[in-house]
From TrEMBL:
A single Gene Ontology CC term: plasma membrane
Protein name, entry field: V-type proton ATPase subunit a
GO molecular function, a single term: proton-transporting ATPase activity, rotational mechanism
Membrane-topology descriptor: Multi-pass membrane protein
Family named by the database record: Belongs to the V-ATPase 116 kDa subunit family.
UniProt keyword Protein biosynthesis present: no
One of the protein's GO biological processes: vacuolar acidification
Gene, per the UniProt record: ATP6V0A2
Biological source species: Ursus americanus (American black bear)
Keywords: Hydrogen ion transport, Ion transport, Membrane, Transmembrane, Transmembrane helix, Transport
Length: 131
């Protein structure tokens, strides 16, 4: 087999470009996850501002009566919106990122056909090596 410098150079340039684009893509994906956590914090602040501050600003006569349902509503919204929906969204996004980036590091796609593991094929391989 003859050594072809141009082919090797072109292959390395393509792999280098793919690696750089993968790094940029992975960084952008994790920045999206960071933005999701910032949105989660902002949503928590909005819930606090719109619900509990309203209950705290009312007179002392009606404030106590209004504060109990407001705190109950705040607790329900916090649990359902922030903890369940936002947590599930962030969890699924993080799982997707780990799966995509894990596959990036190990999968090459060089065209080798996948053959599942089989003891029968393994024993025939060893018998061919011995003979």
């Amino acid at each position: 087999m003859r050594f072809n410098f141009g082919e090797i150079l072109m292959t390395q340039v393509i792999h280098s470009i793919e690696y750089c684009l993968g790094c940029i893509s992975n960084t952008a994906s994790y920045l999206r996850l960071w933005a999701l956590s910032l949105a989660h914090a902002q949503l928590s602040d909005v819930l606090w501002t719109m619900l509990v501050r309203v209950g705290l600003r009312v007179d002392t006569t009606y404030g106590v009566l209004l504060l109990l349902p407001v705190i109950a509503l705040f607790a329900v919204l916090t649990i359902f919106i922030l903890l369940i929906m936002e947590g599930l969204s962030a969890f699924l996004h993080a799982i997707r990122l780990h799966w995509v980036e894990f596959q990036n590091k190990f999968y090459v796609g060089a065209g080798t056909k996948f053959v599942p593991f089989s003891f029968r094929l393994l024993s025939s391989k060893f018998s061919d090596d011995v003979a």
